Amino acid sequence: MKLMPCPLNGSRNISEFTYGGEVAAMPDPTACTDAEWADYVFNKSNPAGVVREWWLHNASNYWFIAERDTVTDTVLRTFDPGEIFKTRIDFTPHATSQENPA
Amino acid sequence: MDALSDTTHRERLCALADLTNLPRLGLRGRTAAERLAAEGFRPPDAPNRLTRADSGETLLRLSQGEYLLLGSPADRGARVRALEDALPKAGENALYFLPRQDSHAWFRLGGPRRFEVMAKLCGVDLSPAAFAADAVAQTSVARINAVVANDGRGGALHLLFDRPSAVFFREALLDAMREPSAPRNRETACLVG
Hints:
The complex is a heterodimer of chains A (102) and B (193). Helices cover 13% and strands 35% of the residues of chain A. Chain A is mainly beta. Residues 97-102 of chain A have low confidence and may be disordered. Helix content of chain B is 28%, strand content 28%. Chain B is built from 6 helices and 10 strands; from the N terminus they run H-E-E-H-E-E-E-H-E-E-H-E-E-E-H-H. With 193 residues, chain B is an alpha+beta fold. The chains are: A mainly beta (102), B alpha+beta (193).
């Protein structure tokens, strides 16, 4: 059985988790070009070595980040995304108030 | 004792109750613990722990900022229902209401054999030595996602899971409850034979 150490729930069977893709720096969606956004959404670097990946613990609906060696398929560390992402991002801030005045 | 009465005896050692119709709610956000404390509940100190209110409600902490409040059978969940009516539904002041009445079913598994039954359905060690009183486990039970809460004061396990799976989950639990445990196999084989 393959086990994954969840930062919230402890060591669990890998069947309790869903892979969520590589962790990549998001370009500013309001300022970047379409090519930059498409590169962020569709292209993956897929290196041989240590990568950072999003994982979801299904039962608790908890997203976290794992550092995994893709050569040995060894999980080196898992941690809460709050270690990296400190502020909330609003994608459509205050968009509707001017379009639909009361 | 014939095989039928032996089955009934085993079921008495483990009792399943469907509490799905009792009120319950979720709260999430930076001010969730503060709001629950203001309502007279004691938010658990750490995720995956629970506390019991004197009036019978059970408060589970599911993550840093998410809580699940289970109503008390004593007042048919009236206190939780009153809190739900008073909460802002749209998310204000970093407090988000999470409706749990229709999303989750709620079973209570009591009796001295409850930990043995869970061992048949869940890969995580939920024996009393590993799964202490007032601990919460969010894991896969009978191949569906479930929240398992070990209510030490109430002497029972609370199981919350996807509501449309309730019929399947009930059958899976009853099957595990009727099944003889390993040490009883020989005795049961004699009874049946």
